[in-house]
User: Fold these one by one.
Assistant:
Number 1:
Amino acid sequence: MLVTYRRVGESVHIDDTIEIFVLAVTPGKVKLGIRAPEQVRITRSALLLTVQEENASASRPPAHVEAALTYFTGRKSGQSIVQPSPRPARFPGDQVQREDLRASGSAGSVQEAPAAK
C-alpha cells in the first residue's frame, strides 16, 4: 500500500490512465476526484461490500428450500450430490477371470497361419 500526503489541488497518477485529485479537505473528510477511462469501474468500498453481501444472499436458496433439501437428501445446499465411484479405475478381479479363462481353454484359441513359402 502506498501512503502519501497530498494537498488540495495535487494529484496522484496510477499507470498512465488514472489520476486521483485531492479536491477538498475538511475535518474528518477528504473529497477526491478521479479521472479514469470509461471501462475502469470505480466503486466506493462501502457500496462494494453491500453489493457482495447481496449477491451472496441471493445465491443461497430460501430457508424452506434448504430445509426440504436437507430433509429429503440429508445434504445441505453447498454439498456435492456426486457420489464417489464404488469401484476403482482398474478392476483386479477382471484380470483373474481372464487368466482363469485362458487356463481352462474356454476363451478360445488362436491358431497361427502356416508360413508362406
Number 2:
Amino acid sequence: MNIKQFAVGMPVALVRSQEAEISRMVLRIERASRGQLVILRLSGRIQSEHVEELKSQIQGYPQTVILDLADVKLVDRDAVCFLADCEAKGVELKQCSPYIRDWIARERAKPPE
C-alpha cells in the first residue's frame, strides 16, 4: 500500500510541551482516512509528554491505524518504547527513519526491567 495515495486531512492536534514552549518544538498530528484505514501523520519531535495524546488519538479509531513518521525529526526513549508497543499491538509504522527503527529494535532486545 502506498501512503501517498491518501489525501492529508485536517490537523487533529498540535501538542506543545513546557519545554517545547521554550524551544518552539511542536508535534503536529494530521489525520487522513480512507475506508478501514486511518493514517495519523506525525511531524516534528515526539517526546514523553506527547505519548498520552498519541495514545488517545490511536484509541479513538475503530479502523486500522497507520502512523506515518516521515516528518518526525527526533524522538526520546519514551516515544520509542511507545512506538514499539504500538507496533506490537498492530499499529503500522510507515516511513520510519532508520535511526528510529534501529532504536526500536534495540529497545525490544533489552531484557524487561
